[in-house]
Amino acid sequence: MKISLEINGKKHEADVEPRLLLVHFLRDVANLTGTHIGCETSLCGACTVLLDDAAIKSCTVLAVQADGCRVTTIEGLASAGELHPVQKGFWEHHGLQCGYCTPGMIMAACGLLRENLSPSEAEIREGLEGNLCRCTGYQNIVDAVESAAREMAGAVK
Amino acid sequence: MSSNGKNEKYVGRPVKRTEDPRLIQGLGHYVDDIRLAGELYVAFLRSPYAHARINSINTDAARNASGVVAIFTGSDIEGRVGNVPTAAALEGLKVPKYPVLALGKVFFVGQPVAAVVATSRYAARDAVDHIEVDFEPLDVVVDAEAAAQGGPVIHHDFGDNIAYVHRAGIGDVDAAFASADKIVAQKMHHQRLAPISLEPRGVLASFLPGEQQLTLWTSTQIPHLLRTQVAIMIGLPENKVRVIAPEVGGGFGSKLNVYAEEALLSFISMQLHKPVKWIETRRENMSATIHGRAQSGVAELALKNDGTILGLRYTVTADLGAYHQLLTPAIPTLTGLMLSGCYKIPAISMVCTGVFTNKMATDAYRGAGRPEATYVVERLMDIAAQELGIDPVELRRKNFPTPDEFPFATATGLFYDSGNYQAALDRALAMVDYDKLREIQKSDTAAGRLVGIGVSTYVEICALGPSAAMPAGGWESATVRIEPTGKVTVMTGASPHGQGQETSFAQITADMLGVDLNDVYVIHGDTGIVQYGIGTFGSRATAVGGTAVVYATEKLISKATKIAAHLLTTDEENVTFENGVFSGAPDDKQVTIQQVALAAHLASNLPPDTEPGLSATYFFEPKNFTFPFGAHICIVEVDRDTGDIRIKRYVAVDDCGKVINPLLVEGQVHGGIAQGLGQALFEEVVYDENGQLITGTLMDYAVPKAHQLPRYELDRTETPTDVNPLGVKGVGEAGTIGSTPAIVNAVIDALRPFGVKHIDMPLRPEKIWRVISNQ
Ligand code: FES
Ligand code: FES
Measured from the CB, is residue A39 less than 6 Å from ligand 1? Predict the structure, then answer.
């Protein structure tokens, strides 16, 4: 099937098998390997991207379902060499160790902050419930998201 | 900044990681992110049975499936790829032959039976379904304790399922127990765990037939050891094998191994003259990557009425699984080493029976044998305190060695390097205001609330280790080089995979050389570039690998000093080196380390008999392990109606000696605590009575999530060690070791009104609820 989607502001067209997962499209067709795979069964969140601004797990979406949609991956987050506040938060607060969960975690946090710009600690923890991290014990991730929220709220004001 | 002429140091500061910019932008390269032209994909047919005879394998239909290039079965490669090796050398150890593809029989669910090579991932996976295997199910051995007693035998030649019996400990334990006022005993179970690195394993092998050279990208913690083993297994000269551990998405011990797939993919690439890739699925990861823990035993403590400990006995069965992976049999021996905990125990004895079962092998999972020891000792301390009517804190304090008793000899044959257990415990008690807490607990209990306070003190063995105590060398290596342009390259034989040594080793080197942190580049994980090394495990990278960096840098500075003296036309003794600048010339002239590096490479003006270039390599052999320690306190409240456990506070005071980068140390402690709490509350690998893996996905195996974990309140005490010049002890496993007994002790404390002595992990609400409602 022919599909066309916009990834990080760039148009991608391809003829794909109907069963191709979006995450495989991103990684193998669009060559954007920043989106990771930790389970392929919608349980770990490593593959989280924004689909038309909502955080989704790209291993549970078929590429053909994303036809005509806008996708933002971790590679598209920084703009003009300037890190996104969530990326900055993760760096400042040591929110990553092996880094494998990180792209999905950052995209999930972006999705969360789009819905709630001043989440409480509990809301952040609940909001990231679909994303597993085996390295950090989550505390620094929570702090990273809180600090990003503060920075983004400051910018909005 | 600690560049030339400036003198603020990097070491000891929370320097942000230099690894992070690439990782937070999705620009790091894990194995699956490396793409080679023409690469083929491998998928495995794995055993659906825990124990079965393979009567036949028919691959005809699969061979004709679209995209399929080749299929390999055990008989296709028999005698051409060596067996999966084990490095553990225990007396009388039985070692079953462990072929990379099953031959004749399968012994656990998930064992590789056939490999399909195809032009795409999807085609490879599709074709697996077209392979027909006639399996004849055999009797299955699941329960290790039962299997030790008799019943069906897994590896027939051995006659029984007992792989070894290991005895450890010193002192007259029988006499200790005979003279005791009080003996407490408890059967305890350390359930099987899955390490679950977020990045599963993955292998990309590329053989160049002209050069006869193989490059193997693999998600490993031990690239050099792996190179040696894979070279032997596939019969290539070791110097023609290059192993690269690119970005590695977590290991926790599970990638401290030599796996069938690593050798097999290498072999396949040699056969097909094409790059071949296999990326483990999570289901494969759950069934065919090593598991951890899986010990079950009776622990006994002999005491005087005043709480003085006289002796400890631990009779334990270790569930090894069907085969030995690299360190499978050795892990329980670490338990034996650490059974003295933080206490003076004059006599200790462990008898460990290692048993084969039809399951995946157990091996090193974060802590690797030490969490088991700490858990046993710390649970016994609480049980003894309860039975003697002594406060658990007082009982611990009574049996601590004093700080001036170090180096402290244990009845397990170790010498603890340094320690001040009182200080760490006092700090933790102060943080929670322990006495007041016990008062509040009383009124809570009176009001019907189930609040529990759990204390655990721990000591662990780190910086593995002196080579004499290790199966394959315990040293670590480093090369430090200053390039002609003054940039510094550090090559470490350690293989970090999230711990942050690219940053901390740069901090160490930058300080010593007086250069900017950003001018130091740390390379690791590539056997084609880095001198032989041992790898990252057992909290050794900084204590052993970092020390190698220190000594290599010293060596380099000493050579640079000679050259500097020559350039300054003075004698070496007059030259001083500070903040990157050599001084001491009669005319006050100075040269920078960068100028010396250039002169060393131009080599036209060097002192006589000086080798050109500016590079130094050091292989550091530690003279002892290190023994970090700490005190963890957990406060929980149990819900009477549901059995739910809420963690109200979690306080951890860890002493890992001196700290290079506090950010990294805290990160290690956080992650460790999370995994320890995971074991205590949620995680368990479950096989049913047929040896089927019930917990084969992340739906069934409960890795803790953000909302299930508390905020950790941390502090540190700092007792230096003289085992290495950095004074560091290691911290990678501390959290995992301290946290499990702390929370279990807290929960049992909360359930005191019900007269509960012990509950086996994981402490699922259902188990708690049964205790409360007496069901
Ligand atoms: S890979 Fe998509 S949720 Fe795990
Ligand atoms: S940083 Fe390793 S899994 Fe999150």
Answer: yes
